[in-house]
Design a protein that fits this description.
Length: about 170
């Protein structure tokens, strides 16, 4: 219990393998996030398409079986020639862009309507918080931590709105 943590020789470390594993993790997380955002059940099979340089695409092809095991997604295409399909969710993995076609997976019109309602709700909340911050009585009389909390909440609302607007663009494409 008090022994030092074992140290390994640096020659046993494989940076390329670690990078490939990190890319796999990031891709699995991204696919799962798409499922969460669009309320897609975990058992629903998805197609995954990735636009990436040849080296990255090759690494993804090498671990393609893991996408099905860990995210119920099939790597349909990977490479520099991959183009974004219409009505697809997208995500960025640094040197790669991923796409998941949503046609036939979700009710696009219903999801678009739901996301637009969410955007409208967020815009109202943002307007309310901006109104508070424009009110000099509030800013000068409220405790500094309360004003800071309103600013922090406003920043969070703006980030949520940007995310929802991106989803609306994804759903509207195609």
């Amino acid at each position: 219990m008090i022994a030092a943590w074992p140290s390994l020789a640096s020659t046993l470390r494989d940076d390329a393998l670690e990078a490939r594993f990190n890319r796999l993790q990031d891709t699995i997380v991204a696919v799962r996030n798409v499922r969460a955002v669009y309320n897609i059940p975990p058992g629903t099979p998805l197609e995954l398409m990735v636009r990436a340089p040849a080296e990255v695409a090759g690494d993804l092809q090498n671990v393609a079986a893991q996408f099905d095991n860990l995210a119920k997604a099939v790597l349909a295409a990977a490479g520099a020639e991959v183009v974004r399909p219409p009505a697809s969710a997208s995500f960025s993995l640094g040197e790669a862009d991923g796409y998941i076609p949503l046609e036939g997976i979700i009710d696009r019109d219903a999801e678009l309507e739901r996301q637009q309602k969410e955007a409208d709700k967020l815009k109202k909340h943002i307007a309310g918080h901006e109104g508070k911050l424009k009110n000099q009585n509030f800013v000068s009389k409220a405790p500094p931590d309360v004003v800071a909390q309103v600013r922090e909440t406003l920043d969070g609302l703006k980030k949520q709105l940007a995310s929802v607007e991106e989803i609306v663009r994804d759903l509207s494409a195609g």
